[in-house]
Amino acid sequence: MSSVDEIAKLIEDLYAVEHILSALQKKPNEYAGVSLYANETHTLKLIADNEGISQAEVSERMYRTKGATSVMVDKLVKKGLVNREREEGNQRRYLLTLTEKGWTVNGAHREYDDNHAAWVTRNLDISEEDLQTTRKTLDDVIGFYSRHYLKEGKAVVPDREESGRGQQ
Predict the structure, then answer these.
(1) Cβ 96 vs Cβ 43: under 8 Å
(2) Spatial separation of the C-alpha atoms in residues 53 and 74, rounded to whole Å
(3) How many other C-beta atoms are found inside a 10 Å radius of the C-beta of residue 31?
């Protein structure tokens, strides 16, 4: 198969992964007695890894609109997992930190992820070398598409010449 055919197949495979992830995101999981959807858990994880991050930065890093991020943070605040405070001297910027309960839930989520990764490792017949190659390839593809199709976290359509669609 040619490289062009391989890339076309890889893109189709990525759509299949997107479909699977979309299905998984529709089902909440329970962590330390709190029911969360995947987007909520990963937002919580990002805040945990970046205590004091602003809502705007969360939007950028998660490729979401500011409105969608605000709704997500509202849910996490209502569940008692996140504190949202205005930045001193800047009434427009909110900074996010985890509550004690948020740290507990985040720890339970990370334990779940570790157990899931261990389960996949036991049940997927693939070498560590193949996994590393797959990760590098995926990183390269993500980097390429991010450079050409995202600007400030938002989807953009490159011009026809740049994307190859103008070529016959």
Answers:
(1) no
(2) 15
(3) 21
The Cα–Cα gap between 93 and 60 comes to 14
Gap between the Cα atoms of 28 and 30, Å rounded: 7
Both tokens of residue 22? 């979309």
Identify whether the C-beta of residue 149 lies closer than 8 Å to the C-beta of residue 63.
no
Specify the pTM: 0.78
* Two structure tokens written together for 63: 């490729």
CB atoms inside a 10 Å sphere around CB 20: 10
Backbone φ and ψ of 91, nearest 5°: -70, -10
What dotted CATH number matches 3-124? 1.10.10.10
Over residues 72-112, the pLDDT tens digits come to 999 999 999 999 998 787 777 889 999 999 999 999 999 99
Residue 24, C-beta contacts closer than 8 angstroms, at least 6 positions apart = 38
